[in-house]
Design goal:
single chain, alpha+beta, 5-stranded antiparallel β-sheet
Amino acid sequence: MKLFDFLFSYVKLRMNKKLKRAFYNFALNEDADTWAPVCDGEDFSVCIGRKHLDSVRRRFGDDVVCCEKGALSLIKKLIPRFGILIGIVAFILILHFSSTHLWDIRISGNIQTDDDEIVKRLGELGVNVGSDIDEIDTDKVTVDFLNSFNNISYMTLNIRGNVAYVNVIESMLNNSDEDNNNQAFHGENIIAASDAIIEDITVISGRGEVVRGNIVKKGDLLISGAVGGLNSTKICDANGEVLGRVKHEFYVEVPIYLTEKSYGKEKTTDFSVDFFDFSLNILKLSGNLPDFYDTIEYKEQLSVFGIVNLPIFVRKKTVLPYTEDKIQLTEEEAVRVAYRRLSAEVAASLSGSMLVSKTTEGFFEGDKFVLRSEVICIENIGVKSPIEVQ
């Protein structure tokens, strides 16, 4: 058996077992290699090189069933299906290209510095998704990277497989006055997020500045992070809960005449695959778009078992044409729609608050129904606000 014939071009023959002796005599005269003989009942099968196929057919005719095998046979079958053949070739090229290039960059250790800022600087130094791994000088990149950031004191860059792992350690910056070395202290106050009447206050750390019954405006100090002593003032992060009685107003209007969308069954799809910096359009939107349409866009990064992210993104954009139909609501329908919208808005805005009272008025104004509501509830009105004392 010749390896070339086995891999690229051979034929599997099937015949009656009675022809076995005649076939081997034929193969001996033709100096043909044979392999993988199998007897199954009255049937006998064997493999032979593709170049002997014509001689086999002339000698045995219809007594032998021939089935071409090997890579060349597969390519011949795929030629009519050109898209599949191109896909296989593209897949092989992608595997070859991606095995020597970065697929992903993973960053850890940063608190003050954004991932995007680090990735941008690494890209300027030649470390990008799609960069040739062999061309990355990790020592030089590390030195240049550290020279770019005053707030990063240490950085490591390790490339394992097709993933670059970046770990940074940020400096503990000390805000100091260079003239008198007075240290700056930082803390937080708790201030009012809205106008309210204080119902209760619980102080965990800091100093309470209000009591039950006080009326406060938005931005007023509720719990101070500056705690005074006999000879000094201590700055800390104020913590606690301040409950206040707050008034909220809601406004909803529903027109009597509404426009309703009606979607048809037709849709147009734009489908592409992004590989590193290359984009392959599988389907592309063409022709004139309809007058009215909605779009649904989808993007997903492929991964291996959800563990290793591949540098391949699938993008799909679907255009859904629709027509607009004018409908007229009855007064009862307009009222029901308005109350549903009001209830949804109140529930979304006041989640976690305790309702005290609610007054609602509704009326028709021209060709619309108007609904106004005043809601009083008790809620935590405290929000953090940074302080700095020199």
